[in-house]
Amino acid sequence: MASLKEKIGYALGDAAAGGITWKIMSIAFPLFFTNVFGLTFADAATLMLIARMFDVVTDPLMGSLADRTQSKWGTYRPWLIFGAIPFGLVFALLLYTPDFGLTGKRIWAYSLYLLMMALYTAVNVPYGSLLGVMTDDDNEKNQFSSFRMVGAYAMGFITLLSFPYLQRLVGGTEQHQYAVLGAFFGVLAAAGTLACGFLTKERLKPVRAEKFEFKQFGDLFKNKPWIILTLIGICTNFFNGFRYAVAGYLLEYCLHGDVTVSGLIINYTVFMTFGELTCMIFGGVSPKFTEIVGSKRKAFMAAALICVVFSVAFFFVPMDPSYIWVMVALVVLTSVGIGLYSPLLWSMYADVADYATEKNGTSSTGLIFSSGTMAQKFGTAISGSLVALFLGLAGASMITDEMGNTMVDPASITDSVLSMVWSLFSLFPAIIAGLIIVLTWIYPIKK
Question: Which GO biological process entries does UniProt record here (predicted)?
């Protein structure tokens, strides 16, 4: 039986990765790269697309490598312990804007973004794989997964809510603000990752494959539950990715900047914070909800249906700051569904890993869970790339000011661009949530 301290320790791992680094990368990076750092929409879109092709290779290789690691710290924990500091450091550097020309900035952004993705893989694939070796009890796996999601959403809530106030506290230019906050949150991410590595335990010994074989990769594509769950994982991250990537543009252009209500500054990070708090609460009750519904599969479909209904409803809200609380309410209601299905996804990956071990005779836990991390990065970054691409297609363009800084041309923000932003936050995610329901319906593991 795992202790409460260990469950909290496991939660700290995703508080660092999901609640800090990934949350900022998902919601702040698209706007940061175009409006602060100075890349064009095309540059930002290309950067994220290249990074995803990179991840297609590195994630499964990392999973296979992690499965074969042997040390006094275990199989997966050493990657967290020794990867924590580089992980936080590169994240901090990625939010720093060097005084280079456009070519130099491209090199800086591309190099550090790819390095950050590699480090995220090196830390997060083993972190996810820990779930498969900490316990063999299915209910306890659900509890660990629930703690993980609560940790991620709780820290996401703190990160997004505090971001605009910390920016004001830091002062100076936006470039200076992002650089200081990058260093601050980088230290927190490193500390959380390190704590997770030291506080968790590996109780189960994986049945190792003695040597690297490409057969393991081939076995994945014969594993129907893995194929469908990977598609579900990509879709869940597409769903979140579109919403987070476009939130900054929605507040900036559709609502004409930050909305202040009774002294509360509602910028794009705070706007999504309401959803983070909801996800944290309903992530905690997800195991009980699953028990009431009767299976993970049925619970997942019910949660995705909630996302469909309230995403569509958001589209019909008038594009006016006076409706901000209606928008917030719909973000909260949509997040009920996200909070309920998020813990289930990782628990279902553990089921697929057990299925693969039983079928093939050797453990491929790291390889299985690497697909979850790849789906996370693929779905989030491709959606961010598509947001930049769609806004460009809708007519948004860049200009260079007298100081040589590249920025969005205000004159290019037409009604077609505003309609595209609104649709990317509502209708596009609703279609994806509908696809999640279909995929979950045909998912063959009936737990």
Answer: carbohydrate transport; sodium ion transport
Task: In whole angstroms, give the CA distance from residue 155 to residue 339.
Answer: 14
The residues spanned by each domain of the chain are 1-200, 212-446
Are the CB atoms for 317 and 330 separated by under 8 Å?
yes
Q: What is the pLDDT of residues 310-328, one digit of tens each?
A: 999 999 999 999 999 999 9
Instruction: Give the Å distances, CA to CA, from 372 to 56, 130, 410.
Output: 12, 13, 39
Are residues 341 and 300 in contact, defined by beta-carbon separation less than 8 angstroms? yes
Which pLDDT does position 213 carry in this prediction? Answer: 55
Query: Do the domains spanning 1-200 and 212-446 agree at the CATH topology level?
Result: yes
Angstrom distances, CA of residue 305 to CA of 26, 245, 266, 436 = 23, 22, 28, 9
Pairing of strands 398-400, 406-408: antiparallel
pLDDT per residue as tens digits for the range 259-269:
877 777 787 77
Please state, in angstroms and rounded to a whole number, the distance separating the CA atoms of residues 111 and 94: 9
Which residues are within 8 A (CB) of 151 and not within 5 positions of it... i.e. 6 or more apart?
Answer: 8, 10, 11, 12, 13, 14, 15, 18, 19
For residue 197, the model assigns a pLDDT of: 92
Structure confidence by residue, pLDDT tens digits, 29-69: 767 887 788 887 777 777 777 776 676 677 777 777 877 78
The second-level CATH assignment, the architecture, of 212-446 is Up-down Bundle (1.20)
